[in-house]
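Hi everyone, sorry if this is the wrong subforum. Our group has a chain we'd like a structural model of before ordering constructs, and none of us has done structure prediction before. Sequence below.
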Amino acid sequence: MQHSLDILARDQPVVVLVDEYPAGYLDPLHHHDHIQVLYASAGVMSVRTPDISYVIPPQRAVWIPAHTDHEVYCRGPVSLRTLYLKPALNARGNACRAFEVSNFLRALILETARLDPKAEETARAGRIIALLLEEIERMPDAPYKVNMPRDPRLLKVCEALLQDPSCTRDIDDWAREVGMGRRTLTRAFKAETGMGLAVWRQQVRLMEALSLLSQGMSITRAAYEVGYESASGFSAMFRRTFGQSPRQYLGS
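Answer:
Right subforum, don't worry. Here is the predicted structure as C-alpha cells:
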C-alpha cells in the first residue's frame, strides 16, 4: 500500500489508486506525507494506529491524516481504493475517523479512480473531486473502533483480546498476567482507553463480529465465534451499539 513518489508528486488535489490484496496481507506500520482515505469496495480490513484500532467492513472507510503511523491487515481478499489527498484538504480534520460511505460517495470514489492521473485536471474532473470532498465531509462517523493504550502492560492485554475476542479471562487473570494490581489495572485502563476492560472487550467482539458477518458467516456462528453464549444476546448488544439488528446490517 506504499506507492511510488512520482504518482503522489503530481500536482493534483486527489489521486486514487486501485489495488487487490490477498487474505492475510499485512502492510506494517508506516505513514504518508499525504492524507489517506482507505476504502474497500469488497473485503474487510483492520486498520491500526498507535492510538486506535479499527475494523472497516465494506461500504465504510477510514480517514488517516498525513504523517499518521498506521498498519493495515486484510482479513480476507480486499479490493481497495486508496485516496491520497494533499494535506491542505483537511475535510475530515486532523484525527483518524471511520465513516460511512453512501452509494453516492461510493460512485464518486469509483469515478475519481477512472480519471486519468496523467492528464491535466479538466473542469469535469475538478467538479467531481470537489463533490467527492464535500461528500466525505458530510458522512457520519462509523462506530468501528476501540482506543488503544500506550502502557505496554495494558497494550499486551489489548493485543491478546484483539487476537482472540472470545477469550473469557477476567480482570484478575489479566492483572496477574501483566504484574499489576486489579485496582491499578482498572484505573489505568479506563484512563487510557476511556472505558472499562469489560466494555472494551465487548466493543472488540462486536467489531470482530462485523468482520465475520461481512464475510458471509451466519449470525449464530458469528455470535459464538466472538464469545457470546447465545445469538439473541449478541443481537441485542449489536442493536444497542450500532442502532440496527445484524439482519438489518447485512441487508444495508
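For your construct planning: The mean pLDDT is 87. The radius of gyration is 19 Å.
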